[in-house]
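*Target chain*
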Amino acid sequence: MSPSIIPACRKRILVLPLGAIALAALLLVGMFLLLNGLPIVQAATPVSRYVATTGSDTSNDCTVSSSPCATVQHAVDEANPTDSILVASGTYTGVQARAGITQVVYINKALVVRGGYTTTNWTTSNPTASPTTLDAEGLGRVMVIVGTINPTIEGLSMTRGDATGLGGSCPQ
């Protein structure tokens, strides 16, 4: 719709389409935010986080491959949605309670958890040559995924989970 002029008692009124007014308002707000130094929200760039049995969770955000975290859960806690958690070969144990459920890994954001790496090769996952195991040792579930999310879980073996009394179990 193009601007039109409506005659009215010796005055000319310029009528603009509603979309043009909305666009102008958005531009003004954007310029105000930019000129006043207020942050403009940008999407986070996915980050790789590293986990190895030889790592440490203490004061570690898991983003340095030569200084990995020790637990998958700590890497998940440090991660933002869309991050990738690369897990080196080995067996990862240690259950903890979250939201009334005991498990090795509790995931509540869409991210990637991939096993099969080595501490000398974080580029290529090979779960056959470098098996990565999450072991609940019969003390709880191995992994709990909550929310309306779609995480990617690859290259991990999960063993000795126990969901007795919690619903959800594997047939024997």
